Amino acid sequence: MKKGRTVFVCAQCGYEAPKWLGKCPGCDSWNSFFEQAVAPPSPVPGGDPDRRRNHRPVLLSEVSSENEMRFLTHISELDRVLGGGVVRGSFVLVGGEPGIGKSTLLLQMCRHISTEQKVLYISGEESLKQIKLRAERINVDKNAISAFAETELGAIFAAAESFSPDIMIVDSIQTVYKSELDTAPGNIAQVKECAMALMQYSKANGVTVFIVGHVNKDGAIAGPKVLEHMVDCVLYFEGEKYNTYRVIRSAKNRYGSTNEIGVFEMTGDGLKEVKNPSEALLSGRPKGASGNCVVAVMEGTRPILAEIQALVTKTSFGMPRRMSTGMDYNRMVLLMAILEKRAGLPLSNYDAYVNIVGGLRVDEPAADLAAAIAIASSFRDAPVPEHLAAFGEVGLSGELRAVSGVSQRLSEIRRLGFKTCVMPYQRRADFKAPEGLEVITAKNICEALQRSLQNVP
């Protein structure tokens, strides 16, 4: 039998090579290449075979843009992340760890849109009885959603052709396989080919397709990030396993912003929207304790208040230990070096632990000042006033640098009942302070610490 053409693919990043390599040029991983047969090109499902003769280049002025054809999911937190609703004919990837709530969120979305759209739910992981039990638990109308338990791609397209859905959900892409390929479901080749076929079906027929993808131990969806290049929108569902709060954020969105987040709370009846994330994240905040400070961060157009906790204690070993949760580890180490060099805090012989309460991930540089205040507060055992919040970027020279969205941050700080805010120096004409909020501006980290910590000269 004549052997077809094969290539070697990296299991970590999807890099293709004509021969086996010991080290991947794409991600520098060792012994990650495996041999894979090259599948013959497949036609576009549902497409016109004569489309090459009928299509011609057109001017952009001839393209109609009157109707973007968006529809709401009626889950405000999800609509916010999607950019104001779902675009008809889009291809959306929902990723996250197993058990985080992806299937629950999509079923709840079906509950709201099934009265307006025809929904087909393709399940490759659960049986129809399991889907029915989940639907009953979260109060989904069982007469409004059609489900189909199948993993073979050809059977899925046959069911879609007979049903003609407006929205199709595939849960999950790792379980779907193409019979023409000799590899197992979940393999990089299977995932890539199945996703490409689903994308072509979505664009050719104007069907909105949601696919679910689990992440591996490295945090990538279905192994390498090959799927993110094909889809129109990538939604990551994040959250601690033992925390009730879930955060959905957009890593890629061709039809909206990638800075918005949606916050949910996992309950026995499904996911519940958190309309006021700041109040939820600050609930249970300790009073009179050192080592915590409230920061105002911007997630897209929404200001959110989060609590940063720090614990600094003298090390018992020769090498001090550092640990951070919800904040970049290297950024935390950098802030400790700045505090030691510019503020005179001898932190080199102390262990340090920093945590963002509530499972929120904060990557914005505006959290630098609050993190530095929390670390200094724990080191000096000097509590931060309960009514004080802070934000600002800290430079390597100890200077405080201005950040964007100052007026929105201050308004959120005042709305939550805080009376004082420490921030980088800016002209009063550049921002508007709400009534009842005292704004303290500082030019460097030393001034900020003096005005933030109690019982410190």
Low-pLDDT segments, ≥5 res: none
What is the approximate shape? globular
**Strand neighbour order, sheet with most strands:** 8-7-9-10-6-11-12-13-14
The description of the largest β-sheet is: 9 strands, mixed
Structural class by helix and strand composition: alpha/beta
CATH superfamily placement of the largest domain: P-loop containing nucleotide triphosphate hydrolases
Write the CATH fold name of the largest domain: Rossmann fold
The first-to-last residue Cα distance is 85 Å
CATH class of the largest domain: Alpha Beta
Helix content: 10-25%
Average per-residue pLDDT, rounded, comes to 87
Question: How does this model look, in words?
Answer:
- The mean pLDDT is 87.
- The N and C termini lie far apart (85 Å).
- This protein has a 9-stranded mixed sheet with strand order 8-7-9-10-6-11-12-13-14, with helices on both faces.
- The radius of gyration is 26 Å and the shape is globular.
- The chain contains 11 helices and 23 strands.
- The protein is an alpha/beta fold.
- It has 3 domains: 38 residues; 207 residues, Rossmann fold; 173 residues, Ribosomal Protein S5, domain 2 (2-Layer Sandwich).
Question: What's the arrangement of secondary structure elements?
Answer:
Layout: E1 6-10, E2 16-17, E3 33-37, H1 51-54, E4 70-71, H2 76-82, E5 86-87, E6 91-96, H3 102-113, E7 119-123, H4 128-137, E8 145-149, H5 153-163, E9 167-171, H6 188-205, E10 208-214, E11 233-238, E12 245-253, E13 261-267, E14 270-273, H7 277-281, E15 292-299, E16 302-314, E17 322-325, H8 329-342, E18 350-356, H9 368-380, E19 388-390, E20 393-394, E21 400-401, H10 406-415, E22 420-424, E23 438-442, H11 445-452
